[in-house]
Amino acid sequence: MARSVVSEIKRDHIHKLIADGHRVDGRAWDEFRNISIQTNVVETAEGSSRVKIGNTEVIVGVKMTVGEPFSDTPNRGVLTTNAELIPMASPNFESGPPDENSIELARVVDRGIRESQMIDLEKLCVEPGKKVWINFVDIYVLDFDGNLFDACSLGAVAAIKSAIVPASAHGLGEDYPMPITCTPISVTAVQIENSILVDPSLDEEMVAAARLTVTTDDNGDLRAMQKGLRGALTVEQIKTIIDTSRRLGSEIRKLVG
Amino acid sequence: MARSVVSEIKRDHIHKLIADGHRVDGRAWDEFRNISIQTNVVETAEGSSRVKIGNTEVIVGVKMTVGEPFSDTPNRGVLTTNAELIPMASPNFESGPPDENSIELARVVDRGIRESQMIDLEKLCVEPGKKVWINFVDIYVLDFDGNLFDACSLGAVAAIKSAIVPASAHGLGEDYPMPITCTPISVTAVQIENSILVDPSLDEEMVAAARLTVTTDDNGDLRAMQKGLRGALTVEQIKTIIDTSRRLGSEIRKLVG
Amino acid sequence: MARSVVSEIKRDHIHKLIADGHRVDGRAWDEFRNISIQTNVVETAEGSSRVKIGNTEVIVGVKMTVGEPFSDTPNRGVLTTNAELIPMASPNFESGPPDENSIELARVVDRGIRESQMIDLEKLCVEPGKKVWINFVDIYVLDFDGNLFDACSLGAVAAIKSAIVPASAHGLGEDYPMPITCTPISVTAVQIENSILVDPSLDEEMVAAARLTVTTDDNGDLRAMQKGLRGALTVEQIKTIIDTSRRLGSEIRKLVG
Amino acid sequence: MGGNSDMKLIDENGIRTDGRKVDELRPIKIEAGVLKNADGSAYVEVGKNKVLAAVYGPRECHPRHMQNPAKAIIQCRYNMISFSVSDRKRPGPDRRSVEISKLISEALDYVVFTENYPRTSIDVYIEVLQANAGTRCAGLTAAAVALADAGIPMRDIVPSVAVGKVNDTVVLDLNKEEDNYGQADLPIAMIPRTGEVLLMQMDGHLTKAEFDLAMEMGVKACKEIYEVQKDALRRRYAIVNGESEEEPMEEPKDEPMEEPMEEPKDEPEMTEED
Amino acid sequence: MGGNSDMKLIDENGIRTDGRKVDELRPIKIEAGVLKNADGSAYVEVGKNKVLAAVYGPRECHPRHMQNPAKAIIQCRYNMISFSVSDRKRPGPDRRSVEISKLISEALDYVVFTENYPRTSIDVYIEVLQANAGTRCAGLTAAAVALADAGIPMRDIVPSVAVGKVNDTVVLDLNKEEDNYGQADLPIAMIPRTGEVLLMQMDGHLTKAEFDLAMEMGVKACKEIYEVQKDALRRRYAIVNGESEEEPMEEPKDEPMEEPMEEPKDEPEMTEED
Amino acid sequence: MGGNSDMKLIDENGIRTDGRKVDELRPIKIEAGVLKNADGSAYVEVGKNKVLAAVYGPRECHPRHMQNPAKAIIQCRYNMISFSVSDRKRPGPDRRSVEISKLISEALDYVVFTENYPRTSIDVYIEVLQANAGTRCAGLTAAAVALADAGIPMRDIVPSVAVGKVNDTVVLDLNKEEDNYGQADLPIAMIPRTGEVLLMQMDGHLTKAEFDLAMEMGVKACKEIYEVQKDALRRRYAIVNGESEEEPMEEPKDEPMEEPMEEPKDEPEMTEED
After folding, report:
1. Can you tell me the distance from the alpha carbon of B161 to that of C54, in angstroms, rounded to the nearest whole number?
2. I want to staple D76 with a disulfide (CB 3.0 to 4.6 A). Which of C122, D124, E233, E234 is the partner?
3. Which of D96, D103, D211 sits opposite C222 (nearest CB)?
4. Among A213, A194, A78, which Cα is nearest to A149's?
5. pLDDT grade for D5, boundaries at 50, 70 and 90
């Protein structure tokens, strides 16, 4: 994300380690940092989660209300995903409306959820063309140490899975769990000096040439991808990352339950 | 408000005077500057006033329209208070949306009116849950020489008291005077070098350590308070200001009629 | 428009030419540059045009939708005109919301169309007080070499004349051509060193003292005028420009067909 | 413009609904020097219009990239306060006020000797307190007086007025009712002494002959307003110089304590004989 | 304030709906040093309120024109996250949060030795994760601990609490239900040691006698909260200095690789005896 | 992606609704050097898409804090004009266009020798005049040609295309109908000569095998588009150098009068053999 100036010394250090097949924190190239997932952390939300990947920490809430559907999908609930890179999380984040980084982040997370059809939006229709459930998935980054795409995606998925549709508060019968069809998992890797590293830390992101995020569903099929940063990837590198994403995705999926 | 740099010379001068028990313009510590109140100054408004406290001058208008009530107060009219620190009033005011100074000002004025229940909002209900009178109290500062809180509060109270509900123009029977229950008066004092000075001029505000605004009702009870600036007040100082506000408030209340 | 610094050399050069009765590009004082008009250039619009006057180029689209009329004109369609000075068109244009230049431009174009009653807005009423046709006339400047007022006005007029009301797509019967009553034409001139020059190029605008845009209808009557820039015009100069506008307007009107 | 309304706004004797003749101005009242903080100010009433203008400057120009190394820039902000019109106007600039601010800035730029104050800004604030048609003209009229009150050297003061057309007749200085149902509006501002036109807009429908008549009426009216402007400045000047004791509160500005050597505020300065 | 509601919020034994006595605080929990990037941070729970505070600075002040050549400026941003309240709050500042941010900035300014760091900014970020009345007080309580955790020299830590009135009775630390149906709210923040009040607001209806009682209650409660704040800092200090092995992940911050000579982070510094 | 629609978009002979085969591009037309002011420009039609791209720079970078002392920054603004789509789009950036602008900026950054122009900005403006699916690819295709037309040294030109899936079949270059009812969309941009991928997004549903097929199709199509890009530049070069008399208006840019010594505009420069 924010490209603050990294000292040449640090850059050289990371490059040298990678050339020797090592990472700064000693992980294998396809190894995630420690992942922790808590759900139901905020009781004013219909669903919520607090996720840490290493020192990157996010909190995600799902708020649901009843509103009008879009005219071209009259019998489907509405999903809105927003990400806030609040200045608490990094010396390089600033207050203000979403910038291109938080917009890209929110849209990539959104696509993973939307394109996998994780939420069965047709089950969130109250009265076709008139009333449907509107889902606000709001992501706040609390501490930023790299790989926001995966942390936010995981947080959103965990928060959605924990959500209870507040039907009774709207006079629409009993509350029921959010209708879920699958669990999309995003895995991000970067290319540095032609090495591929999964779950980049902030230091690694800052020297990376290119990034690829791959979101897979329970079958290991592709649901969303996003290449980022100002460098290139070969088709072979892309295929390596896709294979790794499918493999690691199925492991991480177990953590979400 | 705007903290422009005041020369050290002026600051020392004011401090020295205060140490000797004097104010720059010769007033007693609990003496207001000259207050002038004009009402019905703008005939396009339902009520209006132009108030001067010394060289501080404000114009306030009340516009009323029919709209929807808030869902949690279906049988009450709506009150909205806004303050504009327009650049005409001071070399330190800038064009643009309300900043933290004008927002605080509007909110403090609003609280005095709202919490004293000055306007009988239930009498401004046309059709419960559907139609109520919306009151826009708009304050424009024309000339700024300190103590905006009291000038704006007084202007708002005078404008509201002068307002006529424009029922006939909305096909809702005959016009009638704004339903009023009491007259909240705000009195502001500052602490400078542990002295308390009521109705600070701009020069005094600029060297003040702390400010306290106290709004009292016709019974002398407290309805709103706001401590400001980057200094401290002792509990004793607060109590002194409260007592003074109750006393001066009842005098100023007579001016509004 | 954007007043970038023009070198003194260029300014002197233009002044000297004008003093000798010449223009930089050899035109007569009352001669337009080459005008080209294309219509139906964008099929997603109800009407569109691409107009060039010399190297100044604009694209204009008319989008129509059904919406509510203004409460004071319940039986008339709505006209909204917007101009975008996109950074593609000039090194001096910046991204962002409309600035004072694009607002003035849009409002002057709008007045020519509105005040000449070019569009028969009463024929664009579907259901009085409820449903009327809303016309969005959106102007994008693609290449800027002076005299935007006339280029945009001509583009808007051509796009409007080419528009087809999309009634069938809204279940309102068959499509029909936009109801047109006349063809307003704007002609702009500048005053430089007391000479009057029609259709100023960018170089001429940059050294001009004053500008006058005069929009006439099919009868040669005045429908809109706008004086601009930081200089003065005598009443005689104004009358000269008006006469010229009436004369050239009737010629340009033929080009629009 | 409302277009060709049937509403009768001029009677058979040529008298308008507010009792005026077709070439008669509304009552006009101008007071200079009405605000304490501003370097110059003026209050203007034209009929039911109430307008306040204030001037700050020449002062440092913000933002810096707008500075002109050769001259001062004139930045005008025309604004209608929210309760100056029948339906509450949301605070903040709208497209109409942005356009008017630009036109007034351009008109004033011509009369101020901006080359005297390079890199500075002269800021003109116009607040319409009560609106009744013709506020841009009343605002410009007030702004010119405020500039003079601020002691800023000017070629001349600028009066402004609108001419219009109602019931197929050219009339001077439209009021709100005439504006709503009128057929044309032609606001102008000019230097009466030289005949130079600094602001001109027009919308509606005018034949060439009607335009010529309207300009004639407008030029004449500007001369009248100009006299009222000068009169206001003369009264202000008399007060500032202690020649009048009527309004003792209107003293010359306090000198800042830290700058005791500053000259007293200049009287309004103009190139013409006063 | 909802005004004089009939809702019974205190029973005949003086016990409130959540079981508290009238002068009893909600359970309060404070943890210092909970974030990695921030220079200082704290997490506070007061009843059902959950609040996070982070401090960055002293650091270069942006925008530059806000720099004070004589001292640091304190810039606080109080924010409620969108899902911290029953109805989703749109992200971004609203008028309420702008006012609260201003008041907390002013209160903290008094206790920080800002003159030590001229031209810099000390930025305080408060995020309300879950709201249940009294969030500005919980936020200020958290911010003071975060400032200390950042090693910024302070006169003292600042506790904050609200006193209120429900069922015509003065009660301490209103919860959401009491706030909704209560008659007055009086948030305060102070330095318990000196009795100096740094933040005070009030709305509703209080007689002078009720105010005096409320202040007494508030002062006493601030002393209690102050002890919890100090305790959190003591635990944090122990961890940072390796005196505890309970939470091995909470190490001192990594030194930046390029500045190997930097001193280890100071322990929280206060003027009073600890 | 609309998901698994029943709408039949490919017939039994593998022919799509617009008559194309599954691996067939829409007709593509590219013209370089179409604008007067811009330093470089290009107009592209891909099927019913009409896209204009303009390049300014290298020029001074605003705002200054975005300057990079080591290289030029590429700032792309992708925009759809309001009437380029069925429902009028409000002018100004939306979230979609912000994301696309970022991705195109990143893709172009890789091919421009940005280190040649430290502290400058190279600004790329893409305006979609008429949209029919695939506008980001058409825009990037146009932008690359405009950069070359501006004489900016580049590693290579970048072609871009989307592959997709409809009726469970992988197909090239979706049109609007196919996009609306399709099952996946995979826009890519690459350097055909090296196989380096500079832009890639995907949404919908693709198995690994389908992805492999899609990439194969995309790589092949990029090569075709690349030839059309080069051809447009060759034609432009011929005109600029007077080798063609067909379009006499397309002269080299006028030299600014005050800088008569400036070199004629460079021909498009590329590292590969032309």
Report:
1. 63
2. D124
3. D211
4. A213
5. low
Determine contact: B234 vs chain E, CB below 8 A.
Answer: yes
The whole-angstrom separation of Cα A90 and Cα A93 is 5
Taking each helix axis as running N to C, give the angle between helix C100-115 and helix D95-111, from 0 to 180 degrees, rounded to the nearest 10.
110
Strand bridging mode A164-165 / A185-192: unpaired
At residue E148, does pLDDT exceed 60? yes
C-F interface (Cβ pairs under 8 Å ≥ 3) = yes
Q: Can you give B58-82 as a three-state secondary structure string?
A: EEEEEEEEEECCCCCCCCCCEEEEE
Q: With a CB-CB cutoff of 8 Å, which residues 23-62 of chain A face chain E? A: 41-45, 48, 55, 57, 59, 61-62
Count CB pairs under 8 A between chains A and E: 84
Q: For residues F274 and F268, what is the distance between their CA atoms, to the nearest angstrom?
A: 10
The minimal CB distance from F88 to the residues C65, C95, C143 is found for C65
Chain E's closest residue to A145, CA to CA, is E37
Cβ distance of C87 and F87 shorter than 8 Å: no
Residues forming beta bridges with residue E73, ordered by sequence position? E121
| B-interface mutation test, from E75, E160, E203, most B Cβ less than 10 A away | E203
For residues A212 and A201, give the distance between their C-alpha atoms in angstroms, rounded to a whole number.
Answer: 14
* Interchain CB contact of C220 with D (< 8 Å): yes
Hey, which bits of chain F come out as E strands?
A: 28-32, 40-46, 49-60, 73-80, 120-130, 160-166, 169-172, 184-191, 196-206
Q: Which residues, 6 or more positions from F202, have their beta carbon under 8 angstroms from its beta carbon?
A: A222, A224, A225, A226, F184, F185, F186, F211
Are the Cβ atoms of F56 and C91 closer than 8 angstroms?
yes
Neighbours of C236 (CB within 10 A): 10
Distance between CA atoms of D205 and D186, rounded to whole angstroms?
10
Tell me the residue length of chain D: 274
Give the closest of D77, D127, D130 to B43, CB-based: D130
End-to-end, the C-alpha distance of chain A in Å comes to 29
pLDDT lower than 50: segments of chain C: 1-4
C interface mutation test: which of F88, F127, F130 has the most C CBs within 10 A?
F88
Instruction: Name E29's Cβ contacts closer than 8 Å, sequence gap at least 6.
Output: E44, E45, E228
Tell which residue, B119, B141, B145, has the closest CA to residue B50.
B141
What digits encode the pLDDT tens for the residues B196-226?
999 999 999 999 999 999 999 999 999 999 9
E6 contact partners, CB below 8 Å, separation of at least 6: none
Per residue in D18-35, pLDDT (tens digit) is 999 999 999 999 999 999
Contact B227 E211 (CB under 8 A): no
pLDDT digits (tens, 9 = 90+) for E114-129: 999 999 999 999 999 9
Looking at beta carbons, which residues of chain B come within 8 Å of D36?
A: 55, 57, 143, 145
Cα–Cα dist F50/B239, whole Å = 73
* ipTM confidence: 0.93
CA D146 to CA E153: how far, in whole Å? Answer: 51
Residues with Cβ within 8 Å of residue C236, at least 6 apart in sequence: none
Distance CA F118, CA D93 (A): 39
Determine how many CB atoms are found less than 10 A away from the CB of residue A71: 8
pLDDT value at A76 more than 60: yes
Can you give the three-state secondary structure of E172-206, one letter per residue? ECCCHHHHHHCCEEEEEEEECCCCEEEEEEEEEEE
Burial profile B218-255: b = 16 or more Cβ within 10 angstroms, e = fewer:
eeebbbbbbbbbbbbbbbebbebbbebbbebbeebbee
CB count within 10 Å of CB F10 equals 18
**Eight-class DSSP state of B95:** S
